[in-house]
Amino acid sequence: MSQRKRSKGPGFSQGDDGDEDFNLSQTPTHSQVQRNLERRSQDQVNQKVSELVQFLLVKDQKKIPIKRADILKKVIREYKDVYSEIVNRAGRTLQQVFGLQLVEIDTKHHIYILTSDLPRAEGENLRRDNQTAKLGLLIAILSFIFMKGNSAKDSAVWEFLRWLRLQPGERHEVFGDVKKLVTEEFVRQKYLEITPIPLTDPPEFKYQWGPRAAKETSKRDVLRFVAKIQRKDPTFWTSQYKEAEA
């Protein structure tokens, strides 16, 4: 993994949406994009994907429609020859991690919004008290725990979060202190329970659903969410399907 200092991405916390034309002069074909991709640093391409995900999440918090020109100008920049690949990868990450769909609402001016694809919460608190991005992260963790058999070791949870480019020791542009959010805020809100595993040295912990999670969503909804993002039928996971339908 690249050790270069991670850029926060210019303009993430700003509300300006300039109309400067920064459009692609000519849309490259899929094969051209693939050739361009081979000439690019994969670490830098992955970094651009991560920056774009954060940029889109911040815009979504403010419910600001997102212009392609702004994506190119503020994030993609000199990597516009692989623009479509970066946007596609960011879109997959947004769907798989946060349950969000990147939707183009104006094809003439290339304007996008994010729409939620998360399991419906039966209660009001989860929807009212948490921002969309936090809710997406919480659902991702709850899904991971359920698919692991209703319990997951802390090492496995953090490995999963690192795969999502969330480092416990780094401050995240959207989530802030990720470790504090997961181990303190979600626990205090009773969405997660973290308990020590006996006779482990060094100490290990297990993550399980908290009582609020069980009240505000369901295993059936979570399984449907996982099945949708993985494009499989819920019955593909036999034991989880039986448990969810019980």
TrEMBL record:
Span of the secretion signal? none
* Taxonomic source organism: Fregata magnificens (Magnificent frigatebird)
Instruction: Name the SMART domains for this protein.
Output: MAGE
Q: Where is the composition biased (Polar residues)?
A: 23-35
What is the protein's name according to its record?
NSE3 protein
State a GO cellular component annotated for this protein.
nucleus
Question: Which branch of life, at top level?
Answer: Eukaryota
Q: Which residues form the MAGE domain?
A: 45-244
Its gene name is Nsmce3
Question: PROSITE patterns from the xrefs?
Answer: MAGE
For region Disordered, the annotated ranges are 1-41
Under InterPro entries, the record lists:
MAGE, MAGE_WH1, MAGE_WH2, MHD_dom
